[in-house]
Design a protein that fits this description.
Length: about 120
């Protein structure tokens, strides 16, 4: 007795279409999950290479921007420090002028000198 296998050609065509749909769905899901039109080099090698180069440039610009911001922050701190030192020197000058006044008593001059010396770091 001979065994006969009958194939269902409609089922085979439907299976092929399902496989194509699944591959396209995988590509779409990859694009959605990564946020990239070309997620890897298998999608489109030349576009992927260009995209990788642009990503590298973008990351480099981000690093430059962060470094510039750090520099600006250092300058802000430096300016505030210089303003504080300037204000301290002004206060010391005022105390020196007060102490140089010949009309004040020696006790007041000692108090002013003590205030002046409080500004001097030790």
């Amino acid at each position: 007795m001979a065994i006969s296998l009958n194939t269902n050609s409609s089922a085979l065509i439907a299976l092929q279409q399902l496989n194509v749909s699944n591959r396209e769905l995988d590509i779409t899901q990859s694009r959605v999950s990564t946020g990239y039109k070309v997620a890897n080099s298998k999608d489109d090698p030349s576009t992927y290479a260009v995209a990788q180069n642009q990503r590298a440039d973008h990351d480099a610009y981000d690093a430059i921007s962060q470094s510039a911001q750090r520099g600006l922050n250092v300058l802000d701190v430096t300016i505030k420090s210089l303003e504080t030192i300037s204000n301290l020197l002004i206060e010391m000058r005022v105390k020196a002028i007060e102490a140089a006044n010949p009309a004040i008593t020696p006790q007041n001059r000692q108090l002013i000198d003590a205030d002046y010396l409080a500004y001097v770091p030790r």
